[in-house]
Write a structure and sequence with these properties.
104 residues, Glucose Oxidase, domain 1, 3-stranded antiparallel sheet, two-stranded parallel sheet
C-alpha cells in the first residue's frame, strides 16, 4: 500500500515506484526523488494488494502479477497497462536550456 524504510532494497532495484497510498511528501515520493526514479503515490484505482502472491488488483478487476509490465508517469500520475514506448527529453531552447548550459 505504501513504502517504509524496510523496502529500500526493492526501491533501489525498481525502475519506478507505485503505491496505493501516499502523496508528494510520502516516504516513497521523497526517496524516489532522491534516487531520480519515477514515482506515482496514492493510486486510488488499486483495490487490493497481495504481498504473498505478489499481485495487485485495480478497480476494473484487472490483476497485475510480478513480472507484468506497467508504465508510470510521474508527471501526470497516469499508470498504463503494458510497456509504453518512451523517448528522451529534448531541450531545444528556452530558459531551461540556458540554465542547463550554465550549470555545465
Amino acid at each position: 500500500m505504501e513504502t517504509s524504510p524496510e523496502d529500500i532494497e526493492g526501491m533501489v532495484s525498481a525502475q519506478g515506484i507505485l503505491t496505493a497510498r501516499g502523496g508528494m511528501t510520502s516516504h516513497a515520493a521523497v526517496v524516489a526523488r532522491g534516487m531520480g526514479k519515477c514515482c506515482v503515490c496514492g493510486c486510488s484505482d488499486i483495490t487490493e494488494i497481495d504481498d504473498h502472491d505478489k499481485m495487485f488488483m485495480v478497480m476494473s478487476g484487472k490483476t497485475f502479477k510480478e513480472g507484468d509490465w506497467i508504465t508510470i508517469s510521474g508527471t501526470s500520475g497516469e499508470v498504463y497497462d503494458g510497456k509504453v514506448a518512451l523517448k528522451d527529453a529534448n531541450i531545444e531552447g528556452g530558459e531551461l536550456k540556458t540554465v542547463m548550459e550554465w550549470a555545465d
